[in-house]
Amino acid sequence: MLIHITRSLLPHLKGHVSLDHSDSDALRRHGVEMSGPWHWHAHRFPYANSCCVLICHDSTGFVLALPGLDEGDFQIMPDLVRESLVGSMEDLGFSPAEARQVLLRSGPVLFDDQSENRVKEMLSVAWQDMHNVLEDRPNLLLWNPLRLNELINQRIIKKDDNWCRPDDLFSQFVARFV
Predict the structure, then answer these.
(1) Which residues face 52 on adjacent strands?
(2) Residues 6+ apart with CB under 8 A from 119
């Protein structure tokens, strides 16, 4: 699983960005293709006295929200991503065994700084959509991250000239691997 991070996350994850991602052979040695089904983008959004990191699946627009992160949390970011992904797959109706199987097939969590504007725009829209969904509700930091993921992924997006929900697209994507 390769997560392309934006400049706002780079100082926080510098210790995790260890591969020379301009070298496609380095990625292949880690079992990651330059463009593959398990590519994500992540961006850090300041919020209250902490931040919220949104991680967007490139192919489906599915978002994992990690609210309330502080500096210490970035040290365990790969674990937080895996935990959020497994929990979200289980919320979508996959069994814990299926979710773990898919997580294993996705490979290790690797980070690089090669983000694309197209997906960064999708993350900004998701951030705005999340604020719209929570407009009349309590503080984002009081939400269970899995419930937050569920809400944000039920929004309607335009993908390949079709209107759809990211949770439906991601469910179809994950079903190919179980």
Answers:
(1) 45, 67
(2) 4, 41, 56, 58
Q: Report in angstroms the alpha-carbon separations of 105 from 4, 18, 108.
A: 19, 21, 9
Q: Report pLDDT digits (tens) over 122-168.
A: 888 888 888 787 776 667 778 888 988 998 999 999 888 999 999 99
Is this structure's pTM higher than 0.90? Answer: no
| 36 has pLDDT over 80 | no
Count helices and strands in the chain by DSSP H and E runs: 7, 7
Residues 6+ away with beta carbon under 8 Å from 18: none
What is the token pair recorded at 71?
A: 């500096």
Angle value at C-alpha 75, between 69 and 81, nearest 5 degrees? 65
- What is the pLDDT, as a whole number, of residue 137? 67
For residues 169 and 161, what is the distance between their CA atoms, to the nearest angstrom?
14
Q: For residue 79, give the 3-state DSSP assignment.
A: helix
Q: Which of 82, 97, 94, 83 is nearest to 144 (CA)?
A: 83
DSSP 8-state class, residue 151: H
**pLDDT at position 34 over 90:** no
